[in-house]
Design brief:
Length: 422
């Protein structure tokens, strides 16, 4: 195990926040009646922080002050800087070799699956699965598939192993994409390196965003991946990861956030809203405005009628179209709203994603369509057990010199930031 003597000090450095101070949103006057800033500490926007009416007022304020492309680009630059700073990634850590571990290839009908670990910081491994098309030649799009919340601390029920995740990754691979699914921080095999409780720490957002930035590095390095066609899609907390990565990493060409985009709900977990990315001395924003940072890149917003995305067709989607319109790209943003459905990444939501990804990435939708023109995910899908999908096993364990514990991971991350600053 690697030494972690300065862990406590460095962990405190990583998670410390300054006071929110002023609340004028720079030169903007904020709408009246918003929640007051805390008297001390960071301004965290958690859960249903605003009412729908307050969320609408926030979107209207953005449109009032962003009337030209230049207005929006200035606002977007401010938000991107603030997200990185608030997430604890300013400066970005030094990029070190990923030393990817790729093993245990299984071949199914039209796709293969491998188990993957990426050393995103020295001694800490982001774990997941890599799905690839079989008999694939030439360059292919790549998709990062992120998951939402599920049972924490129950290894065999980690969301990466769930049927909805396996099905969508397999289908995308059959369509011609390289697909990488990753465990959230503290979930799945990550829980073998840090306590699952670390997912409810301020480090979770930092590490998940860094994991995904490094995942893009990994996909770009793979033979057969077209670096101009890298996409991301996830649901709920996975969609929050989607929004943040797209906001700060211009290498993501296409995104499909599912059941998350809202002007009044900010995510209920520390990995989504436990750090001051939404409100500080310079600005106050919403997840809908963060979603707009995807512009002008293609984005499909999938919403339903039973959660905080229920107003998307009337509230968030018109806002997104206006922002995309400022960049001459109004046709690049779409919304599929399923008013009778609930909060999940079920078959109809996946079908909308497949069609959008096929159109925007050049994937072969016919590979998952039956003779009647309907999406058929299951005929060619082979479910796998968690035991087959783990990269680390009794016979192939986590490297002996790996980091153990969240504080050790935080310490290493800060060390890389110090190196990168110098």
């Amino acid at each position: 195990m690697k030494s972690a003597a300065p862990q406590c000090l460095l962990f405190a450095m990583l998670v410390s926040f300054g006071p929110a101070q002023a609340d004028t949103d720079g030169p903007w006057a904020l709408p009246a009646g918003l929640p007051p800033l805390p008297s001390e500490g960071p301004a965290l926007c958690q859960g249903a922080y605003l009412t729908p009416a307050q969320g609408k007022a926030m979107l209207d304020a953005t449109l009032e002050h962003c009337r030209t492309r230049a207005d929006w680009e200035a606002r977007a630059a401010l938000l991107r800087r603030g997200i990185l700073k608030g997430a604890g990634l300013d400066p970005l850590p030094l990029r070190t070799p990923l030393n990817p571990i790729i093993r245990s290839r299984r071949v199914h009908d039209g796709y293969s699956v491998e188990n993957v670990a990426l050393e995103v910081v020295p001694g800490y491994y982001a774990t997941g699965n890599l799905y690839r098309p079989v008999d694939a030649g030439g360059l292919h799009p790549a998709v990062i598939s992120t998951h939402g919340h599920g049972p924490l601390g129950v290894p065999d029920q980690a969301p990466r192993y769930s049927e909805p995740m396996q099905i969508r990754c397999a289908a995308l691979a059959r369509m011609g994409a390289m697909v990488l699914s990753l465990d959230m921080f503290g979930y799945g095999e990550s829980a073998g390196q840090v306590d699952p409780k670390a997912h409810h720490s301020t480090l979770a957002m930092t590490m998940q965003l860094w994991d995904e930035i490094r995942a893009v590095d990994f996909l770009e390095s793979l033979d057969g991946v077209d670096p101009r066609r890298i996409a991301i899609s996830g649901e709920s907390g996975g969609a929050t990861q989607d929004l943040l990565l797209v906001a700060v990493d211009s290498r993501i060409a296409v995104s499909v956030p599912v059941v998350m985009v809202s002007s009044f709900f900010y995510g209920g977990c520390e990995c989504e809203s436990g750090r001051p990315i939404h409100r500080n001395a310079e600005y106050f924003t919403t997840n809908a405005e963060i979603a707009a940072l995807a512009a002008p890149r293609p984005m499909l917003v999938v919403s339903d009628g039973a959660d905080w995305t229920r107003l998307v067709p009337d509230q968030e989607y018109p806002f997104l179209r206006r922002i995309y319109g400022l960049l001459g790209a109004e046709k690049n943003v779409e919304n599929v709203h399923l008013p009778l459905e609930k909060h999940d990444y079920g078959p109809s939501k996946r079908a909308a994603m497949y069609r959008f990804m096929a159109a925007r990435l050049g994937l072969d939708l016919a590979a998952i369509v039956d003779s009647n023109g309907k999406i058929d995910e299951r005929s060619h899908y082979t479910p796998e057990l968690p035991s087959a999908m783990r990269v680390f096993t009794a016979s192939a364990p986590v490297p002996a010199d790996s980091l153990k514990g969240a504080e050790a991971v935080a310490a290493e991350l800060v060390r890389l930031q110090v190196q990168n600053r110098s």
